[in-house]
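Budget justification aside, the reviewers requested a transparent look at the raw inputs and outputs of the sequence design task funded under Objective 1. We therefore reproduce one unedited record. The lines immediately below are the structure tokens for a 253-residue chain.
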């Protein structure tokens, strides 16, 4: 998002062109951090805050997002006023969810219910700090279903789970209307169906403005249209965002 293309400030330019007549609800499937040992921590903070200025409301964190420590990630989200939700990041001792399982967002008379579930990579050892761990998605799905808000016009899952595992998990359930996954193991073109849910795979690494437009008169994902535009070098930077980003990153004029 703040890489060599100037993704954030160019993304704002495209967002102003495409979203000026829409209420924007920004959702992130996780893996949002920059893990570069040279400046990655500050760039990660600026990315979260910058995306919040653009409309980011909810992040579904993954194990990767705890790279700089859970306290640091929570601090950045709080600073940006972004909600963190997860059904399977749980406490080590009691296996209780650390974050809320669901968040609801009301737009006029419509209610969006959003949850998230992170991939648990079997057979891969992760050096996780004490205090938290990942619950298996099968168990997390049971918690999601049992705590689903009673009043919701559309239910959304944010995840980084692969297409194959999503097909296994969701084939026999009708809990979700819309699923966004950031997994790189997705091989079917956008969008596609699993059971009753429509699955959408956003462009990775912030390389594009990638959005789904749902009419408030009918929050059915089948009636949605998508907006997709690659962020290019020639895309003009939003000057106000570029100034803010420079200050956030500590760049000298």
């Amino acid at each position: 998002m703040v890489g060599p293309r100037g993704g954030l400030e160019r993304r704002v330019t495209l967002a102003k062109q495409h979203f000026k007549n829409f209420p924007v609800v920004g959702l992130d499937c996780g893996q949002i951090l920059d893990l570069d040992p040279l400046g990655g921590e500050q760039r990660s903070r600026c990315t979260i805050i910058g995306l919040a200025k653009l409309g980011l409301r909810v992040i579904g964190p993954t194990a990767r997002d705890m790279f700089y420590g859970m306290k640091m990630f929570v601090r950045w989200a709080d600073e940006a006023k972004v909600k963190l939700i997860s059904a399977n990041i749980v406490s080590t001792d009691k296996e209780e969810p650390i974050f809320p399982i669901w968040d609801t967002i009301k737009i006029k008379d419509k209610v969006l219910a959003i949850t998230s579930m992170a991939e648990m990579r079997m057979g891969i050892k992760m050096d996780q700090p004490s205090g938290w761990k990942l619950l298996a998605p099968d168990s997390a799905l049971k918690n999601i279903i049992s705590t689903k808000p009673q009043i919701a016009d559309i239910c959304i899952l944010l995840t980084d789970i692969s297409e194959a595992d999503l097909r296994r998990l969701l084939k026999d359930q009708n809990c979700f209307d819309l699923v966004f996954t950031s997994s790189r193991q997705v091989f079917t073109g956008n969008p596609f169906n699993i059971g009753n849910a429509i699955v959408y795979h956003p462009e990775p690494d912030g390389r594009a403005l990638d959005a789904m437009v749902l009419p408030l008169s009918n929050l059915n994902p089948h009636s949605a249209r998508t907006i997709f535009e690659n962020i290019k070098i020639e895309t003009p930077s939003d000057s106000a965002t570029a100034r803010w980003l420079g200050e956030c990153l500590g760049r000298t004029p």
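Confidence is low (pLDDT under 50) at residues 1-5, 123-127. The chain is about 25% helix and 25% strand. Computational costs for records of this kind are itemized in the attached budget.
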